[in-house]
Amino acid sequence: MPTVKDVAQRAGVSVATVSRVLNNSEKVSEQTRQKVLKAIEELGFKPNLLARNFRKDKSNLILVILPTIANAYFARVVKGIEDTARKNGYGILLCTTQNSPEIAAEYLKLIEKKQVDGAIIASAKIEINFCKDLDTRRIVQACEFYPFLDSSCVLIDHRKAFYDVVDYLIKKGKKNILCAIGNEDIPSEFERKEGYRKALEENGLQFREENVIRCSYGWTELYEKLKNLCCLKKYDAIACSSDLMAVGAIKAAKALGLKVPDEFSVTGFDNIMMSRLYEPSITTVAQPMYSIGEKAAQILIDTLESPGAFKKQKIILPHELKTRESA
Amino acid sequence: MPTVKDVAQRAGVSVATVSRVLNNSEKVSEQTRQKVLKAIEELGFKPNLLARNFRKDKSNLILVILPTIANAYFARVVKGIEDTARKNGYGILLCTTQNSPEIAAEYLKLIEKKQVDGAIIASAKIEINFCKDLDTRRIVQACEFYPFLDSSCVLIDHRKAFYDVVDYLIKKGKKNILCAIGNEDIPSEFERKEGYRKALEENGLQFREENVIRCSYGWTELYEKLKNLCCLKKYDAIACSSDLMAVGAIKAAKALGLKVPDEFSVTGFDNIMMSRLYEPSITTVAQPMYSIGEKAAQILIDTLESPGAFKKQKIILPHELKTRESA
């Protein structure tokens, strides 16, 4: 079976030049390209299976790194990415990290190995130590932005979004408002807490650290925490950082005999399907999830198609307060 | 930089033998292996990035093909696959097909391209025409079994499961029972319909084709169909093929002023989180989703690790009827 070396010999060029032709590199003159293609044809040279990546230097695959698929929130983001990718001739592969930065780093290696052309990190937790030596042109952050990874990003203004929802509770007459957020080492959670603080302070209410409850995004942990909070009745509302947390809060309020929203108002975040279907339906913040995915994919694909035109972008998309029955 | 050829020369063996050593093939004597490893070390030979796949002939990645991630049902299956894969040193990549057999076929090509070692098809629709020439040892079907793809599979007995839930409705005194299922070209949907038929007939009730409603798995389509069914009141129950369908049915019953479950009982399928959280909570069938994923991954990995020991398996795991408020 003829090798690249045989092709180079016959065409009277170097192996590197043959590679360039196989690579569709623009650094080869048309005349040389024709010589090489002729030699390839005459010899019946077939780049083998593994050389295929090398030849095209493209897999036409985009990796999407998610913390989990258990949260329905991500399905729309993925759909936006997928539709945009498919329109542009790319497939997408998803992976989940359970928010482990080590696992995220492992999967990011697929870029270097050329098994994927680039990656969209959608909310998955990353750490500075695992992000050295990454080609940031091939990565876009979506929903969440870790500033130490100097890539393009597409997300909402989480601080303003949480400000809006707390401000809405205050305008509805609520004064003793709890806040339930995830871990503050996640940038959006830190931002949301700051939004909560700002809304209180601008409305002349005092921010109290002890009114900030940290918990997981599911419903059970907040449910247990609130049910065991002997003094829940001294509060009249809670702003939650996920819709499932809001379900937990509503269940706890009901268990303690509090009427939602009159005695205890609850807001969620993300506008997942359940927030609309739940009874009472849940006041929440809608992120433009599909658009975030779409835009992130478009930025990445534009760069992959024309690496020379790369320009780092930070896109902030508008959020929307969905007022429903729970607040 | 030294090449495989240099290593072969120095060790006094053929290039193929070096490949076999790099491949961890068992066809090399221990003595030869040691010679090659010594040459590799002395020359400082490093298999290059692209040769890595070649060297190990393994990506240590498993592809999971899903119809969508919008249905929370799949999150647990994926978790079972992922935990098992990780324990065995494999990563997993997910892809979604929106139930297009063409897209599933495209992703299955990643096996042939050696970008993944094998695939688990979890409920994604496939078609016989796209499944020729697949290496069925590298594929396991989960949740759903298309018999034309002669691979191992792990799933529940869908016919028996639907039989059980309809039988339960009948034992509760229901006599005019609708059935809502997805498209019957999906084997499990066909099986469920047969379970519905069998339960009716064994209980002396007549099966009527017109009482079978075909619709998508979300809640809206069934909701609209039932709301516009002028004669819904002549029925006293519906057995649905997904929990979201059940939500649609409950909403329609409520909209028409029917009390659930007294006047109209509703059952779902899959036991997604919402079925427990919804009010009324939804009687449903729990598939052992995590175990299905776990078992499918284990069968696949066992084969990948010892291809010689391959034996096609059909594993039927037990389902469980979860009786709640809606029926």
UniProtKB/TrEMBL annotation, chains A, B:
Residue intervals of the HTH lacI-type domain: 2-56
Domain called HTH cro/C1-type: residue spans: 3-50
Source taxonomy: Bacteria, Bacillati, Bacillota, Bacillota incertae sedis, Caldicellulosiruptorales
InterPro entries: Cro/C1-type_HTH, HTH_LacI, LacI/GalR-like_sensor, Lambda_DNA-bd_dom_sf, Peripla_BP_I
An example Gene Ontology molecular-function term: alanine racemase activity
Pfam family name, one: LacI
Enzyme class: isomerase
UniProt-listed Enzyme Commission number(s): 5.1.1.1
Native source species: Caldicellulosiruptor saccharolyticus (strain ATCC 43494 / DSM 8903 / Tp8T 6331)
Keywords: DNA-binding, Isomerase, Transcription, Transcription regulation
Protein name: Alanine racemase
Source domain of life: Bacteria
Entry's transmembrane regions: none
